[in-house]
Amino acid sequence: MRRDYWETLCNIWAAEIWQQTSTIMKVNRAANPEANMHTSVSISFATHQSRLEKELKRLPTFQEVFDRTHKKKGTNQYISNRAREVAESYSQQMTEKYAEEDEQPQLDPEVWVAASGAPKKGHVYGFGHSMDTSRVLSGASSSASQTSAFNVGVGTPGSSPNDMMGFIANTISGLESCLAQTMETRLVQMQTQVTDALQAQLSQTLSQVISQALSQVSIPPQAAASTSAHAPHVIQD
């Protein structure tokens, strides 16, 4: 890595705002380590939903998308106890609630909140930050509301001041969470790149130093063979 690049990175990491953000994220992760665990990497919830819809050739349920983003790849194991408990609780409650119905809705917001717990800072557990949670938070229960609550998008605020303020607050909260996750992901990527570059440079430098040292103290193979050929033979009685 070029020295000016390295110095620039060091200056960024040493900046007060970077240190403050890093500290806040560390505290948040330590306080609730399972809160943001998922297997979707940087792929959005909407993208996973779209891909799963193509695979199944139908609109997937919310739990199917949740399982896709919260189970270890290649296995049927959830990535955390909380994810497993929420999924099992939601599935059981949906079965009980719609036992006499021909089919279940794609998502029942009330059942999901009951299974996952109360929203925190406008965010519902299991929902991607790009999803509209306003209907879930308002406790919508009609079939139309249940379907639209699963749709991904910004959402349309109501006409009253309270609806507008709630919409703005949810939007800001989602943007802040998304920004924090993006910064954290970028930080990890930068640290990995720097570490790999330093290791490669160190390995190359060490190899060069060792080669130079050996060339100075070792006898070349040709010279060693020539010396051995002209050495006098000792005859023993």
Write a brief caption for the model.
The chain is mostly helical and 237 residues long.
Number of helices: 10
What does the radius of gyration come to?
30 Å
Order of helical and strand elements: HHHHHHHHHH
Biggest sheet, open or closed, and with what strands and sense?
none
Distance between the termini: 67 Å
Secondary-structure class: mainly alpha
Low-confidence stretches: 35-42, 137-157
Instruction: Give the tally of structural domains.
Output: 2
Helix content: 55-70%
Q: Could you characterize what this model shows?
A:
The chain folds into two domains: 1-31 and 160-207, no CATH class; 36-155, no CATH class. 64% of the residues lie in helices and 0% in strands. The protein contains ten helices and no strands. Helix 3 packs across helix 4 (62-70), helix 4 (62-70) packs antiparallel against helix 5 and helix 5 runs antiparallel to helix 6. The chain is elongated. The model is unreliable at 35-42 and 137-157 (pLDDT under 50). Pfam families: Transposase_24. InterPro entries: EN-1/SPM (IPR039266), Probable_transposase_24 (IPR004252).
Write the layout of secondary structure elements.
Elements: H1 3-14, H2 16-31, H3 45-56, H4 62-70, H5 81-97, H6 109-116, H7 134-137, H8 143-150, H9 161-217, H10 221-229
Helix pairs in contact: 3-4, 4-5, 5-6
